[in-house]
Amino acid sequence: MAEILLKRIYEPYDQMDGCRILVDRLWPRGFSKEDAKLALWAKELAPSHELRKWFGHKIELYEEFRNKYLEELKTDPIKSQSFEKIYQIALSKKITLLYAAKDPLHNNACILKEELLKKAAAYPNEF
pTM of the prediction? Predict the structure, then answer.
């Protein structure tokens, strides 16, 4: 598997980012699509509207948010398909998962990175 980076979308673009993938459902405020330099906007991979609102980026709810989001990834066929698409990209090239949240440790991009790496470890012969 190639390298997987996490980056807040408001941080400057860098050519070393590789394939830039926004994993938020909502477009980040005050940021143009041109400046984003995205390869893909995987909004269907983001947590459901209800889950996102419930979490509200409250750190004390993060573990429960993580569990509920993982459940969505496993049970929602659209999310599963989008996850697989990103996994296939990550097998061959460096990706940067972009997010808008202010907290770099408690957001859905962190969970996605964990899951991508976990899948790669479970299937080491895929790359």
Answer: 0.93
